[in-house]
Amino acid sequence: MGEVEQATAAMTDRLRGIGLLPVVELARAEDAVPLAQALIAGGLPCIEITLRTPEAAAGIAAVRAACPEILLGAGTVLSLEQLDVALAAGADFAVAPGTNPVVVEASIARGLPMLPGVATPSEIEAARALGLRTVKLFPAELLGGSAYIAALCGPYRDVSFVPTGSITPETLPGYLALPQVVACGGSWMVKPALVAAGSFDRIRELAADAVERVHAVRP
Length: 219
Description:
Elements: H1 3-18, E1 20-24, H2 32-41, E2 46-50, H3 56-66, E3 71-75, H4 80-89, E4 93-95, H5 101-109, E5 114-115, E6 117-118, H6 121-129, E7 134-137, H7 140-143, H8 145-153, E8 160-163, H9 172-176, E9 184-186, H10 192-196, H11 200-217
Parallel strand pairs: 1-2, 1-9, 2-3, 3-4, 4-5, 6-7, 7-8
Helix pairs in contact: 2-11, 3-4
């Protein structure tokens, strides 16, 4: 097993153990560390900060420096330039809404695990052709939710999924009950309004509630 394969396996194992990946759109870099600390205090030692805002890269770097124990992802990695940003900021892995072979191959070459997005069987096969066996499924709820993933798991028994997209506390258990679901991406505990208001105690409470919901399905 090569270095990137080992890193990907380790990242996947950590994600499976946590069960939930908070997905954050960060307006201010200064909110990144207290947000990450609130998630850790609530029992969620992981975060995906999407590269959708000018402050995202600085936020990722700040979290990396202040919270070395956290599993740190850079999301919405759509280009080679953003891949470089993710690496420079100290991300443990990259995430994308789709599967861009150029970006995926560059990520593999640079030793950074990546979760590219898929939505159809053809896209799953394209990801498999690149050597990937763990992928993001997006947008999960709009595609059909856990029932859709259960159907995909029949023919693609060697593929694991990180479903993301409109997942709620109520729909979370249906996903986590599927053995091929590694973890679910979710944003209800890190909504931009909560972050903007500095409601980090509330974020900690929502994270703790989410952890309880995960443990109810995966003791």
